[in-house]
Amino acid sequence: MSAGSVAVVVPTDIGVPSWDLYELSIPCTVFGKRQPDLADPWYDLRLCGTADQPAVAGGSTGLELRTSYGLDDLVGADTVIVPSVPDPCVEDGRPLPADLIDALRRAYDAGARMVSLCTGAFALAEAGLLDGRRATAHWMHTAQLAERYPKVQVDDSVLYVDDGDVLTSAGLTAGLDLCLHLVRRDLGAHVANQLARRMVVPAHRPGGQAQFIDLSVPVADDQGLGPVLEWARAHLDQPLSVEDLARRAAMSPRTFYRRLQAATGTTPLQWLLNQRLGRAQSLLEATDLPIDKIGELSGLGTANNLRHHFVKQVGVSPGEYRRAFPRAVPGRGPR
Q: What's the rounded Cα separation, in Å, for the pair 247 and 251?
């Protein structure tokens, strides 16, 4: 596993409005601060401006963005991130700088992993990097993305899409989900979980989770969801049904189903499956336990059942997934 270099595009010549600074700050926060106790070396972050002169962000904010790197520095980076593009390029069809599009193409041809957050997908699409691929952006802009780039398979219902060497996310917090997903891919679940804890954010939200849901979290503990979901996470090795969880939450199964779907954007059974798969991933990364034992501890049952769900949801077998991470210390992990 390796962190590598991350180049972040800062459109200094066309301006970064103040409301887009959030997306820009996400990769800076995740990849820019060294975490030697988690991984050493950490990522090498480069902020690459699209012009020599800084631009004022947001017009009246008085904030100037100055970068030490230019577009040529995108080429050779292991990962290239486009956090967003200015509103006129999305709403009014204002052309993106030709040299930016060319630099993105050259970076991809050189082997970089290409990533967009929010409206950054418009830049990857303009470069032709999303043609024939499934991709997403903020749900407010996905219709424009699909209309302008018909070769892109736009999915407006997910937090992020991992298509291997090209990844796209919805806006705002979904960009943080995707960046933590990259850390998980590069450095493993333990590092990503510890980093998320330091940032006081959820360690992992599956990319397929809905962008827009009625409630992102239960509004109060008296709804009974928070405690019962924490209890379920601690008992994933046991058979759990919707009826079991509803009973523990002192609700009818129908009420529990409705409230959990409103709170998480997914059904109770899918939520349980996601939690079990996350548990299995952590065990595959951090232990040398046999596949059948991991199936047992994650609540997925037999090794064959684990493989079935793993291939369907993750895209590779448990063995292939484990080989992407260093061998665990023999005997390490729960027994």
A: 6
In whole angstroms, give the CA distance from residue 248 to residue 211.
28
Strand runs (DSSP E) across the chain, as ranges? 5-10, 44-49, 55-57, 63-65, 79-82, 113-116, 134-135, 153-154, 160-162, 166-169
- The arrangement of strands across the sheet holding 160-162 comes to 44-49, 5-10, 79-82, 113-116, 166-169, 160-162
- The single-letter DSSP state of residue 96 is P
Which amino acid would we find at residue 76?
G
Tokens of 239: 């058979």
What is the longest distance spanned by two Cα atoms in the chain? 63
Residue of 261, 289, 255 lying closest to 281 (CA atoms)? 289
Q: State the CB neighbour count (10 A cutoff) for residue 248.
A: 17
Residue the block writes with tokens 């593009």: 85
Whether the CA torsion 298, 198, 46, 40 is positive or negative: it is negative
Mean pLDDT of the chain: 83
Q: Is the peptide bond before 41 cis (omega within 30 degrees of 0)?
A: yes
Helix (H, G, I), strand (E, B) or coil at 33: coil
| Alpha carbon distance 7, 47 (integer Å) | 6
Q: What is the pLDDT of residues 89-115, one digit of tens each?
A: 888 888 888 999 999 999 999 999 999
Question: Is the separation of the CB atoms in 5 and 44 below 8 Å?
Answer: yes
Distance of alpha carbon 289 from alpha carbon 30, whole angstroms: 30
What the chain holds in terms of domains, given with CATH numbers, is 5-199 (3.40.50.880), 221-265 (1.10.10), 270-323 (1.10.10.60)
pLDDT band at 173 (very low <50, low <70, confident <90, very high): confident
265, burial (CB in 10 Å: exposed 0-12, middle 13-18, buried 19+): buried
